[in-house]
Amino acid sequence: MTTLSQSPLFGVGITVIAYVLGLALRKRIAWAHPLFICAGTLILFLTLANISYEDYRQGGDLIIFFLQPATVALGVPLYKHSHAIRRQWRGIVAAVLVGAVVGLASSAGIVWLLGGSRDLIISTMPKSVTAPIALELSQMLGGERELTAVLTVLTGLVGSMFGPWVLKRVGVRSDESIGAAIGTASHGIGTARIIRDSELQGAVGGVSMALCGIATAIFTIPLYYWLR
Amino acid sequence: MRGLAILLAFSLLGLMLQELTGVPLPGNVIGLVLFSICLFAGWIKLHWVEPTANFLLRHLMLLFAPFVVGTMAHWDTMRDNWPAVLGSVVGGTMIVLISSGWTSQALRRENA
User: If you average pLDDT over residues B69-95, what whole number do you get?
Assistant: First the structure.
């Protein structure tokens, strides 16, 4: 049994199966979120079966690998919807800049108000940005990479679960604006959710996510000197 | 398969450039930029890559699943700091979401 759970086939197999179950559930229940169900089921299963995360990673890492070509693949919706993106470029760029600043400030502010340690405050700040950039920024500012990784993933998940609904409630209805907001606030995981609804939303999400990463990195530079 | 080869080629290219130049961007984002340029320039035809790209993007959530599962390895830290984690992850994200969304919507250009 131990050897089985350590095989890549195990990790890949249970993940894909859980994901397909998540998709199937979404067909029946409109508000079901496939990623939440998939990951939730896996966490439950691994915990109950007493299988370590390290064992799961043998397969998990193989799945994560495909994010490499998938990131490049974002160029396709970008190309197909370049006209719409170019038309709304002011709104998209502004949303990204606002989001980058608000992201850094609100994360730090909320954690500070709720009594978080300095480590936690710093580690929280880059959480809206796509993971590879967030980890680098966290390290640069003296935060904990592992903690930032968790916060980044949860941010993406929360944004992807509730984002579209919240945005419609506050009057943000256009595809480009939804894409820009979700891409800025919840990066890749948010984009993964909206691209299933609308290729345009996904395209703008991808662009916003990349731009927000860059913007946040730039805004972090003065922070770096201030915090030292 | 050709589509996958092209996407992987650009990922690889981006990674190489990142290591060579030390640009503070992830390799695959660099690859994305180069790939997009090639698409716009017509050096890469859409139908070469579209099926593979569409498949990967349709199932992007699957590719993130192991990361979400990974948060369980940090259960202790989350539990110890749960107000701050909850507040920033939920509250902070919503603040960013709404402020970005409103900004974009406000600057929206309609018509011609």
Answer: 88
Pick the residue from chain A with its C-alpha nearest to B67.
A153
Quick one: CA dihedral A158, A161, A163, A167, positive or negative? negative
Location of structure tokens 């709104």: A91
pLDDT score, position B79: 85
CB atoms within 10 A of CB A224: 12
Contact B7 A73 (CB under 8 A): yes
ipTM of the complex: 0.90
Residue A20 — pLDDT band, cuts 50, 70, 90? very high
Q: Is B59 in CB contact (< 8 Å) with chain A?
A: yes
Residue ranges of B 63-82 with Cβ closer than 8 A to chain A: 63-74, 77-78, 81
For chain A, the three-class secondary structure string (H helix, E strand, C coil) is: CHHHHCCHHHHHHHHHHHHHHHHHHHHHCCCCCHHHHHHHHHHHHHHHCCCCHHHHHHHHHHHHHCHHHHHHHCHHHHHHCHHHHHHCHHHHHHHHHHHHHHHHHHHHHHHHHCCCCHHHHHHHHHHHCCHHHHHHHHHHHCCCHHHHHHHHHHHHHHHHHHHHHHHHHCCCCCHHHHHHHHHHHHHHHHHHHHCCCCHHHHHHHHHHHHHHHHHHHHHHHHHHHHHC
Average pLDDT over every residue of B70-92: 87
Q: Answer yes or no: do A63 and B62 touch at CB < 8 A.
A: yes
CB B71 within 8 A of CB A93: no
Contact criterion met (CB < 8 Å) for A72 and B10: yes
> Can you tell me which residue has the tokens 């990349």?
A210
Q: Is A121 left (phi over 0), alpha (psi -120 to 50) or beta?
A: alpha
Q: How many CA atoms within 13 Å lie on the side-chain side of B93?
A: 31
- Structure tokens, A114: 């709720």
Residue type, A105: A
**Residue A1: predicted pLDDT:** 53
How far apart (Å, rounded) are the C-alpha atoms in residues A225 and A189? Answer: 31
